[in-house]
Amino acid sequence: MELFQSHRAEMISIAVALVAIAAGTSYYYYLTKKPKGCLDPESFKEFKLVKRTQLSHNVAKFRFSLPTPTSVLGLPIGQHMSCRGKDALGEEVIKPYTPTTLDSDVGYFELVIKMYPQGRMSHHFREMSEGDYLAVKGPKGRFKYQPNQVRAFGMLAGGTGITPMFQVTRAILEDSDDKTNVHLIYANVTHEDILLKEELDNLATNFPNRFSVYYVLNQPPEGWDGGIGFVSKEMIQTLCPAPAPDIQILRCGPPPMNKAMAAILADLGYTREMQFQF
Ligand SMILES: Cc1cc2nc3c(=O)[nH]c(=O)nc-3n(C[C@H](O)[C@H](O)[C@H](O)COP(=O)(O)OP(=O)(O)OC[C@H]3O[C@@H](n4cnc5c(N)ncnc54)[C@H](O)[C@@H]3O)c2cc1C
């Protein structure tokens, strides 16, 4: 009887230990897998629009509040989020967007959105007023940024393709331990189409040895001293870092531009590893 009781006590201790180990392991996995910040990669979360600033006739900056004034969004640098809305016919639409803010901006995040007359998600943003909520899911994207992962980035952006470039550039320049140089070529149709121009010019002034920006316009105004037409092979050769294992060229623009840039880069000897398209 005594032997049976001591055996039983031993079994109970082992069972308790096993349950404790299982609970500890689950808790560890919960903590490590739990997304940091306010985003959830599996489900849409709603964020309140607290400020809408019209920047031009078809571009606006949208500021969304996070749950508390000290919350951070938690979007890794160079990644984007899926935003869900309704088009003019009331049908659901989901599109990717990159905030222009970083996790050093606490309590909120901002999107700079260009709204196209026929654009489906553009309609949703056009209709949004302060106090409305936007459904957001993320993070998304293959780009993984680490400080000093390359010696230099060349960036080829077109239109709204500037937002991921701006985010990566800000992260690099705001980190005093990051020595990466950034050479941006930014293409648009008209001068009014250039997004974040003031912010980009300020970065170029404040970090003259680490960041340069060259604007290219299809329809330049009189006296324009930037590039004219489309981004050319010569522009890339002159302004971007030459092919090397420790550089990378990032691309983000409308599909025809991305295609044209990929062909030029291949022609100039940039390997697949030396390029990334957002
Ligand atoms: C990684 C990533 C990040 C992005 N970040 C941003 C961002 O921060 N801000 C932002 O405004 N957009 C961003 N975009 C673009 C965004 O995802 C949508 O494609 C854009 O808002 C248009 O969607 P839509 O549904 O309104 O237009 P759609 O219904 O897809 O298009 C309707 C019409 O709009 C016009 N159109 C659409 N897109 C373009 C374009 N790029 N250039 C020229 N004409 C166009 C065309 O005439 C098209 O026929 C990003 C895209 C990617 C891939």
Automatic annotation (TrEMBL):
It comes from Juglans regia (English walnut). The chain crosses the membrane at residues 12-31. GO terms for cellular component: mitochondrial outer membrane. Its main location: mitochondrion. This is NADH-cytochrome b5 reductase. InterPro entries: CBR-like, Cbr1-like_FAD-bd_dom, FAD-bd_FR_type, Flavoprot_Pyr_Nucl_cyt_Rdtase, FNR_nucleotide-bd, OxRdtase_FAD/NAD-bd, Riboflavin_synthase-like_b-brl. The lineage of its organism: Eukaryota, Viridiplantae, Streptophyta, Embryophyta, Tracheophyta. CDD domains: cyt_b5_reduct_like. Belongs to the flavoprotein pyridine nucleotide cytochrome reductase family. The keyword NAD applies.
